[in-house]
Specification:
The protein is mostly helical and about 200 residues long. It is about 60% helix and about 0% strand. It has one domain. The protein has seven helices and no strands. The protein starts with about 30 loop residues before the first helix and ends with a helix.
Length: about 200
Amino acid sequence: GLDVRIRTVGGWSTLGILKDPLLSNMLERNDGALAEVIIHELTHATLFVKNEVEFNENLASFIGEKGAEHFLISHFGDSSAQHLEYLQSQADSKTLTRIILKGATTLDSLYGTFNDTLSTPLKDSLKSNCIQGIADHLKNGAFYNARYQKIFDEVLPNNAYFMAHRRYHDQEDSIQTIFHQYDDNIKLMLTDLKKKYGK
């Protein structure tokens, strides 16, 4: 009876215990997305804080994005098609994430009103209407790629989808603040976090 999410795994890390694989489907990604997933997984192998899954994933997502941008600029140039494509993709991803995280908060508020006097069908209907409203909000989002406005046209997201976005992106603002404390130096930040938390 719980919401689940089934999808292809984009990558994974053994936290440095083994050499992490490059999966064949990763090679279908563009240069920026490929660099991002590799750097994301390498971050896990560099620093993984025990019992802090959301922090670990948010940190890896943040560093993956920053690292991919650094890679594209150093390898292709800041005006390159690869870098500009990545910036547009990132802008779309950030817009989607903002809408989904706001939607997750709206769902939390709705669930907070549920009590034993409400029937399960009524709760399901209220939940469905709320999620439909979040999906409809995407249609007004300012995306470079219009496909984002239609991603829920066939199947609405569920709680597991919203939880996944929280797991990977809900702490990015606080990590950005930490990043600025190190003068936007990823290596310095990671070195200090490793000292603080250990591997």
